[in-house]
């Protein structure tokens, strides 16, 4: 499902490149549930963006769902992203659309009509089923975050990349979100990679990784 080999990524710091990821490798099978922890600024979001095709691969190889993301055109990467689910830290909800229409976007981008089969059940499980007619700016930060999670899962993608999907949530709603991420992996064989600062949430995942000094390590178990 995910194969990364000898990945390097740097950003310019003034005029000098600053290494973010260095000779990083990763192998995750389909259906893997993976948590990713690490200090702020270590490159966790950068790694997710590389897996989403939102950052260019500078050196190394990135293969997801049987296809290489290296050297792909912007159009090819946009089509690829229709088949994955992404939870951004900033939610990225479209302010002019109702919550229902925001949730239907992934479904419609795949050329599907009607409502996704699991939309109502998923919205109810995340506690947002009563918000369908509202606009994003009428919701709290926690409600927007749960909508963003629902949108990433509703089309049952083969890969979900979740960047701090519980950052604005209380303990109860955090567990609801993680439960739905794991359900998708368990029932649909989807691969889930979740960045989190919560050690307690991270410890409940099958694969627990820590990003440190540009490389991935097995996270310390509590």
From TrEMBL:
SMART domains: AAA. One of its GO terms (molecular function) is transmembrane transporter activity. Keywords: ATP-binding, Nucleotide-binding, Transport. GO terms for cellular component: plasma membrane. InterPro entries: AAA+_ATPase, ABC_transporter-like_ATP-bd, ABC_transporter-like_CS, ABC_transpr_LolD-like, MacB-like_ATP-bd, P-loop_NTPase. Pfam families: ABC_tran (PF00005). PANTHER family: IMPORT ATP-BINDING PROTEIN (PTHR24220), TRANSPORTER, PUTATIVE-RELATED (PTHR24220:SF659). This is ABC transporter related protein.
């Amino acid at each position: 499902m995910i194969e990364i080999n000898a990945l390097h990524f740097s950003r310019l710091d003034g005029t000098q490149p600053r290494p973010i990821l260095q000779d990083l490798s990763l192998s995750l099978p389909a259906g893997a549930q993976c948590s990713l922890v690490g200090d702020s600024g270590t490159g966790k979001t950068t790694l997710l963006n590389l897996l989403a095709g939102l950052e260019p691969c500078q050196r190394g190889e990135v293969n997801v769902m049987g296809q290489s993301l290296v050297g792909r055109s912007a159009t090819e990467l946009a089509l690829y992203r229709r088949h994955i689910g992404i939870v951004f830290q900033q939610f990225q909800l479209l302010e002019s659309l109702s919550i229902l229409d925001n949730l239907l976007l992934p479904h419609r981008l795949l050329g599907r009509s009607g409502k996704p089969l699991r939309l109502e059940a998923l919205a109810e499980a995340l506690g947002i089923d009563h918000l369908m007619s509202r606009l994003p700016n009428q919701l709290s930060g926690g409600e927007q975050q749960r909508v963003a999670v629902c949108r990433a899962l509703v089309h049952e993608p083969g890969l979900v990349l979740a960047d701090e999907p519980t950052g604005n949530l209380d303990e109860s709603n955090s567990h609801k979100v993680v439960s739905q991420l794991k359900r998708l992996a368990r029932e649909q064989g989807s691969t889930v990679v979740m960045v989190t600062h919560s050690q307690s949430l991270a410890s409940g995942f099958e694969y627990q990784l820590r990003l440190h000094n540009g490389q991935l390590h097995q996270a310390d178990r509590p």
